[in-house]
Amino acid sequence: MGYPKALLPLGNGIFISHILDALIRVGLAGPRIVLGRDAGQIMPKIASQQVRWLINPDPGQGQISSMKLALNDLAPDHVACLFWPVDQPGVKEEIIRDLTRLFFDSGALITLPVYKGKRGHPAIFHRAIFQELLRAPVEAGPKGLVSRHTAETALLPCNEPAVTEDVDTPEDYFRLTGETLNEALRRTGIRP
User: Fold this and answer.
1) What string of DSSP letters covers 171-188?
2) What 3-state DSSP class applies to 153?
3) Which CATH number fits domain 5-179: 3.65.10.10, 3.40.50.300, 3.90.550.10, 3.30.559.10?
4) For the chain, which residues make up each domain, given as ranges?
5) Is 154 helix (H, G, I), strand (E, B) or coil?
6) Please, is 42 exposed, middle or buried when counting C-beta atoms within 10 Å of its C-beta (0-12, 13-18, 19+)?
7) How far apart (Å, rounded) are the C-alpha atoms in residues 28 and 131?
């Protein structure tokens, strides 16, 4: 993208603030943000938020390395952890609320949204499988764990493509916002 995804404009905010605001409105406690190379740029933009910052020293190891960092930071009283990649900011608050409700009502170890048969994010993992996630090989990521626990996974069917669509390119950004990346950056006073 040529610019940190967490700081990309979305409505009147940025990707990361949109995600944090939704988590707060749903009432999920103790958000943690795992940052990598762009931590110095991102932290000041949302310094007023009540979050815990974690810095991944080697984000090149993939998503699972950030997940492990977050899990290691949780207190023993956390029942579960919801993982929401910053490149999927279009997920609506209602999906998070429904996903959380399904997690508690179903007793599942993993809870995922599904759009047109494809599993997406955010994902909720029960504490009972934290150690398994922590032992997962970096190259395998969390997909192997999800495959092993298909019978203990609750799926939330939804009509929301944002649960499966990453914003990885300027074209993805345009599909999400209806605005080119350069237009959005200029509108918000950010130099591309």
Assistant:
1) HHHHHHHSS-HHHHHHHT
2) strand
3) 3.90.550.10
4) 5-179
5) strand
6) buried
7) 22
Write down the pTM of the prediction: 0.91
Torsion of CA 3, 17, 140, 57, to 10 degrees: 70
| Mode of pairing for the β-strands spanning 110-115 and 123-126 | antiparallel
Q: How confident is the model over 98-126, as pLDDT tens digits?
A: 999 999 999 999 999 999 999 999 999 99
Q: Are 85 and 166 in contact (CB under 8 A)?
A: yes
pLDDT in tens, 50-60: 888 999 998 88
Contacts of 107 (CB under 8 A, 6+ apart): none
Question: Which residues make Cβ contacts (< 8 Å) with residue 71, sequence separation at least 6?
Answer: 81, 130, 133, 134
Pairing verdict, β 153-157 and 110-115: parallel
Greatest CA separation found in the chain? 49
Distance between CA 6 and CA 28 in Å, rounded? 20
